[in-house]
Amino acid sequence: MNNAENGSAMKHQTGCESDTPVDLDAEFKSSNIQEVLDKLDRELIGLKPIKTRIHEIAALLLVDRLRRQFELTSETPTLHMSFTGNPGTGKTTVALRMGEILKRLGYVREGHLVTVTRDDLVGQYIGHTAPKTKEVIKKAMGGVLFIDEAYYLYKPENERDYGQESIEILLQVMENNRDDLVVILAGYKDKMDRFFMSNPGMRSRIAHHLDFPDYSSGELMAIAKLMLASQNYRFSTTGEQAFVEYIPQRMKLTHFANARSIRNALDRARLRQANRLFASRGKKLTQLDLITIEAEDIRASRVFLEGTPDDHLRN
């Protein structure tokens, strides 16, 4: 086929001139997805590979939207995902922002996030699982379904377990409704790998596998400052130094959950600060007193005193 014939065929297929210009930058600005990407950068410290992948997915959907303007048909991109990593590494936050991006680019209708575990999907007796799973899917349709610790859906050692029924329903919906629902499976990497080996049908429907790394001590300190600032608190100079020392000590102990453990530690520090201020209630307090976390509020932690975590939430 010569160039003239090729151009004629292009016009016939698309109904428009093949060299009609498009303004990608204008399309990007009108989608308002930069606002969501900026929010993700503010909310999450580090995680550069994760943020890069989210940017790549946003670019794919943006170009796909432009293609539809030229009636360039193609299959709807499969965006079901697997998020692996330890607790407190930002998986739920990324899922939430992903829903916003999907909505703004017209991939889903609502963009809301529905977070569930096995207990929300799997029933206790025959005939109970299907309606439970379908009800969850109904709530999530038009948005993102986030299944935490997804590997617990599959229990091969129990032949009377009903998790496989839920998996089969999910597989069907992930294939047939991928233009209005994104499913994200989350959990520890080693357990998710075993889950996918046992369920190849599920692996084949996952387009994006994102592994969330643990935070470094420096990143956790930056996260702590962000968390405090969002609640109108601050460290004193000595308080900040105490928390710098606290973080590596806490990281070595059991049940460490990255940013989640940092949040728990700050909640405990705020509790100690309040009790310290209450104990000196004969004294007039300034605004600075009310917002400042001192070294003594940190060093009273059992991490320093006993070498054990004092998180009130074990994650």
Automatic annotation (TrEMBL):
It comes from Candidatus Nitrosoglobus terrae. Gene3D superfamilies: 1.10.8.60, P-loop containing nucleotide triphosphate hydrolases. Pfam families: AAA, AAA_lid_6. Residues 77-213 form the AAA+ ATPase domain. Residues 1-22 are annotated as: Disordered. InterPro entries: AAA+_ATPase, AAA_lid_6, ATPase_AAA_core, CbxX/CfqX_mono, CbxX/CfxQ, CbxX/CfxQ_RuBisCO_ESX, P-loop_NTPase. This is Rubisco-expression protein CbbX. The keyword Calcium does not apply.
